[in-house]
Amino acid sequence: MKRQMSLLLALAMLLLLALAGCSGDTSSTVMEAAQEAADAAVTEETPDEAQEDTELTAEAELTADSLLAAMQEYMENASGMTMDMSFTMDMTIEGERVVTDMGYTYQVTSDPEAAHVSVTVTYEADYEDESMVTTTETYVVLEDGVYVTYSGVDGDWYKMEIELDADLMESYTMLDMTTGCTLAEETQKVNGTECFVLTCQLQVDDLQTLFEEMGLTSLTGEIDYSALTVEETIWLDTETLLPVQSTIDFGDSLTAMMEASIGLAGEDGIEFSMEPCVITASYTGFNNVDEITVPEEVIESAVSYDELYDLYEGYEDYESDNYELTQSEDGIYILEDGYSDVTVSIATSVGYVIDEDTSDSTWLCFDLDDDSSYAWAYYSLYTDYTAEDMEYIYGDDFEIYEEFFADVEISGPETVTVGGRNVTYLRVIYTYDNGDRCLDFDAWVEMAEDVQVMIGGYEYDYDVDFSALLETLVDAIQ
């Protein structure tokens, strides 16, 4: 369930980032015509007959395309811009509602080219007791002719070089990639400003190309764009022709796209629904941004993505099959986490035998030495994890059993002392389809500060004293 939630959120974030990075070309000829028409339309000192001629000219020249072109020219000549953007995703998956609110604040300058972006994500889910709020901050600057981003999350900063085909002012307008724009007959007031209203369709083919060029499909998998229909509405100040607000409305098509792309629908799929999504951008000012500079403490503490990649390369053995089952003495095995030098010795518990086919030094699995019953237990090592971390990760693992089994009894999390060690366990007893009573359990043993040994197990049609079972498995930890 949580993996599906994360996948959907990642897809939405990538889509939002793609839309925020749109850019395109403009026609200077149309710009000049729109500019002249707009100037003529607001002139008050023209004689009556000349004024009438000018109004006819303005009416002929003021089209959606000419207004968009003029707007683009004015924005390109602006020294800076500020913008707020919001996006809400309201989804229900398998009966559980998940609401994600994303708020963006942009500051962009053209000379020197730089951007400062703050993002706040609020995540609320039925399966979480409290909402989660995450704030990230990003600087984009030019260093020696190369665009560099500094991204901060929870006080940690990361640095990466990027490539941009357009300048930053164009990249953050979110007003291109449109087709079939129409100009409303009546103006509207938005935030106290009289505005022209333009309605356009977003070009899905361009969106697909953008995703592919940005390499996003490697993260989300193939995306089916055929169901995606997107409408963009733009409000332009009638006097300055600068944008005041824009919205991108997905309607119900984002739901259809997600269902088609990641297999949420269908006979074996997941029940999924999503409220209509709208991205709203409010342009809060132009020519109003001082020079954007990256704080020295950020520059000094930022870790480059190249260093992170090198660190990941150091973990590649963990991703391979090199962590073979390691035996120090008869019945004693070495357990490691694959990331550190910490190891723990695990003996074969009384009544169990090692399953060599499924075990390695990061995962020790033991089967019950009894052909009449089926049961098994496993051990794994967690370093840099507190007992609170383990409870957060595993604390609600068994709630889903109530959807599939009868007579479900969930116990814990409860902490007990076994052999002088603190052991926290969570267990569930339930009735299987054939009427047998079964037991699943998770337990974590606190070995040292931020070092936990995880014990999990499954008992099928096995009448067992859980306290005795837990003591037997904990005693096997050397």
Structural class: alpha+beta
Q: C-alpha Rg, in Å?
A: 30 Å
Percent helix among the residues? 25-40%
User: What shape does the CA trace take?
Assistant: elongated
Overall pLDDT score:
75
Strand content: 35-45%
The strand count comes to 24
Q: Cα distance, first to last residue? A: 36 Å
Counted by DSSP, the helix tally is 13
Main pleated sheet: 14 strands, mixed
Low-confidence stretches: 1-60, 214-220, 311-321
User: How is the quaternary structure best described?
Assistant: single chain
Provide tags for this entry.
13 helices; alpha+beta; disordered N terminus; 7-stranded antiparallel β-sheet; 478 residues
Chain-wise SSE layout:
Layout: H1 2-20, H2 28-41, H3 48-61, H4 64-77, E1 80-93, E2 96-110, E3 113-125, E4 132-143, E5 146-153, E6 156-162, H5 168-171, E7 178-183, E8 188-190, E9 193-202, H6 204-213, H7 217-220, E10 231-237, E11 243-251, H8 253-262, E12 272-274, E13 277-286, H9 296-301, E14 303-304, H10 305-314, H11 316-319, E15 327-329, E16 332-336, E17 343-347, E18 352-354, E19 364-368, E20 374-383, H12 387-394, E21 406-418, E22 421-431, E23 437-448, E24 451-460, H13 466-475
Parallel strand pairs: 6-14
Antiparallel strand pairs: 1-2, 1-12, 1-13, 2-3, 3-4, 4-5, 5-6, 7-9, 8-9, 9-10, 10-11, 11-13, 15-16, 16-17, 18-19, 19-20, 20-24, 21-22, 22-23, 23-24
Helix pairs in contact: 2-3, 2-4
